[in-house]
Design goal:
Keywords: Neurotoxin, Toxin. The chain has no helices and 13 strands. The protein is mainly beta and about 190 residues long.
Length: about 190
């Protein structure tokens, strides 16, 4: 079975582009021709994986490179995708993010500051989802340090979530890339 997080959906906001292999997404700064879709986010640079998870344990890594703004995590199948969206568990989004090259946050109801020390920039994020335990944990891949854990995710089908950050005057064309994705088996 091919893990669900291996490819990104092509149902994206017109200013986003997805690579041919479906593993990378970036801002283009200009509208692309895309077909209308109820599943597409209409006002944000958000994108989901093509397929979601309803059982099992799953791990994927995302290379955020030197990107100055991003959000990563999961979204519930029922999370709203239209108009104004606040990323929070109450709205069906369990994510962490990086804002303007300055601070890392868990997008909890009241944002939780992540203790990333000094001038260390996170470049690779590991994400572990245990559907039956309803937990989602984020890791700094390079230091193998846990960044944040959500202890009550779901219910329902959950989709890997990616955002290239808020739309600003300064275009950030750095890519978000899924580097690996696997289903984790119990030993």
């Amino acid at each position: 079975m091919v893990p669900a997080c291996r490819q990104l959906s092509r149902k994206v906001l017109p200013i986003l582009e997805v690579s041919q292999n479906g593993k990378s997404v970036w801002d283009t700064g200009e509208d692309q021709r895309v077909s209308e879709s109820e599943d597409r986010f209409d006002s944000h640079t958000f994108i989901l994986a093509k397929e979601g998870f309803s059982e099992g344990k799953h791990y994927w890594q995302v290379d955020v490179g030197q990107k100055k703004r991003w959000d990563l995590g999961i979204a519930s199948e029922s999370a709203h995708r239209k108009k104004e969206i606040t990323l929070s568990p109450q709205n069906g989004y369990w994510v962490i993010g990086y804002d303007d090259g300055i601070d890392y946050w868990a997008r909890t109801e009241e944002w939780t500051h992540l203790g990333v020390s000094g001038k260390l920039k996170l470049t690779k994020i590991g994400i572990f989802l245990n559907v039956s335990a309803r937990t989602l944990t984020f890791y700094n891949v390079l230091t193998k340090r846990k960044l944040h854990t959500y202890t009550t995710v779901g219910p329902g089908k959950l989709y890997p979530f990616f955002s290239t950050g808020s739309i600003t005057k300064e275009l950030d064309k750095e890519q978000l890339t899924i580097e690996s994705c696997k289903e984790v088996e119990d030993k």
